[in-house]
Design a protein that fits this description.
Number of helices: 3
Strand content: under 5%
Number of strands: 0
Mean pLDDT: 83
Order of helices and strands: HHH
Low-confidence stretches: none
Distance between the termini: 16 Å
Largest sheet: none
Length: 65
């Protein structure tokens, strides 16, 4: 994602902060892969639905994001 896309998705108005998040994305991805490698598949299969359920509790703003 480019900084403008990150800004829209994360509701960050500062492009410099969105740029920082864009530069951190590979590191975040690497940590996610490491965690997935350390947890067994059953644990991961239980975690994702719980995270999805938690995200659905966050109210959408006026633009539906």
């Amino acid at each position: 994602m480019d900084p403008r896309q990150i800004g829209r998705v994360c509701h960050v108005s500062s492009l410099s902060l969105a740029g920082l998040l864009a530069r951190m994305a590979p590191q975040i991805g690497a940590v996610c892969h490491r965690i997935e490698g350390e947890l067994d598949a059953d644990c991961i299969e239980r975690c994702y639905p719980m995270l999805d359920a938690m995200l659905r509790t966050i109210p959408a703003d006026e633009d539906g994001a």
